[in-house]
Amino acid sequence: MNKKSIEIFVGLFVALGALGLLFLALKAANLGSFSGGGDTYTLTAKFDNIGGLKTRAPIRSAGVTVGRITGISLDSVTYQGVVSMEVNKGVEFPRDTSAKILTAGLLGDQYIGLEAGGDPENLKGGDVITRTQSAVVLENLIGQFLFSKAADGGSGKSE
Predict the structure, then answer these.
(1) Among 30, 48, 91, 150, which one is least packed by beta carbons within 10 Å?
(2) Cβ(107)–Cβ(79) under 8 Å?
(3) In b/e form, how buried is each residue of 32-47, taking b as 16+ CB within 10 angstroms?
(4) What is the pLDDT of residues 61-88, one digit of tens each?
């Protein structure tokens, strides 16, 4: 091999490495939806506390990603977090579906988990999911634990 062909191979290798890093960065940031996109319908849900939920976070049902969060805002009347989401058209949920803010692992990213109900009618675009469960905030749990230990006197003895 001559010097020119080696330089071409090295250049191609570096370009492929850069494309791989770009792909990995987009996937890690939930920005790379390399699927066809497809048709979706919009749903909203209100939560008392959304925790660290972010736009573009996944919506999952039974562990399968069925959509993405498109927007988060504050309702100025009820002071609840309003989450707008787009769900794939091929996946329909009953009207009594519940939405929970869950965490991937102990300290992972948060996402919305949908649990299907038993209503014969399905949700349509623009509907509001009324059965919701807010995020469990780790700092609040630790604070409650410490407060309960302080109230017990911190003795640690079981009598």
Answers:
(1) 150
(2) no
(3) eeeeeeeebbebbbbb
(4) 998 999 999 999 999 999 999 999 999 9
What's the whole-number mean pLDDT along residues 112-119? Answer: 91
Please give the model's pTM, rounded to 2 decimal places.
Answer: 0.67
Residue listed under structure tokens 């498109």: 70
Residue showing tokens 């949920």: 93
Mean pLDDT (the chain) is: 85
